[in-house]
Predict the structure.
Amino acid sequence: MDTAATTALTFRDATDADVDALVALIESAYRGDSSRAGWTTEADLLQGQRTDPQGVLAVIESPDSRLLVVERDGRLVACCQLEHRGDHAYFGMFAVSPALQGAGLGKIIIAEAERAARESWGAREMHMTVISVRDDLIAWYERRGYRRTGRTTPFPYGDERFGIPLRDDLRFELLIKELG
């Protein structure tokens, strides 16, 4: 892990002025050829968009949600969504710049998100959904203490706001971690 890179991170809540940069970051981490520079790409599973300005703005403006921006040297390098849902928080919209993936940033960001959910809302668990065929990504979350629940929800086939599926077996699986 590049200690210099991770110690210079700053976290803040996203603002309306961040929307375009956040959409570009999220798209670069998951879609198209640029996403292949990192390991979180969904380019072999989905084409089309991962999110859009309206979706990002909705998270920023939601009273029960926070969109954390992660910066290094004043440059946006990662983000994640936290949503308060009663006794637990939902973790989503997680993206790290593909050029910086594999350097340990994800571990630091998810730990900060868990801390923030505990301290801000008293959340006892963190929930997230991951496309069930993303074995490497699920294994990464399992190494961070998340457990597979076996509970799945269908992928929104036909709703291009979430991408255009390249296969017909996509589902979201719920992963949960107790925050203690």
Notes: The beta strands are 9-13, 46-47, 65-72, 75-85, 88-96, 125-131, 147-154, 164-165, 171-178. The mean pLDDT is 93. The two ends are 26 Å apart (CA to CA). The first helix runs from residue 3 to 7.
